[in-house]
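Record 1 of the preview.
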Amino acid sequence: MKYSEIKLSSNRKFGSFSTLILLLVAGYCFWIDHIPLSVVVITFAISSAIITAIKDSMLLHPNKACHMLAYIMAKIAGTFALGILFFLIFTPLAVTMRLSGRDKLRLKPISTESFWKTKSPNPTKGSFKTQF
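->
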């Protein structure tokens, strides 16, 4: 998926969300007794709420920047998560199976006439029920 294919949320929703986040940060700063920082963050929250209510089109560029940041973070975090999944789960499992001699994919060369699995000559009608 390309960044150009991502649909932006409305500027009003973005402004409401940023106001909510700023109010939560201000509440946390007030909770841990950082009153000056709390006042500054509340000022930003109020200005964000006013801009959202009066002219939300001013939030287009911050909305695009926030979506671009989220897109980049998702690319990095997704790659990192898949790497952790591969190296912490699949690699030790494969090494354990290799050391135990198990060949689940049947990659070892076998000298047989056919590589097809042998089946029973006449399957019963009941063997076709609940296949999946």
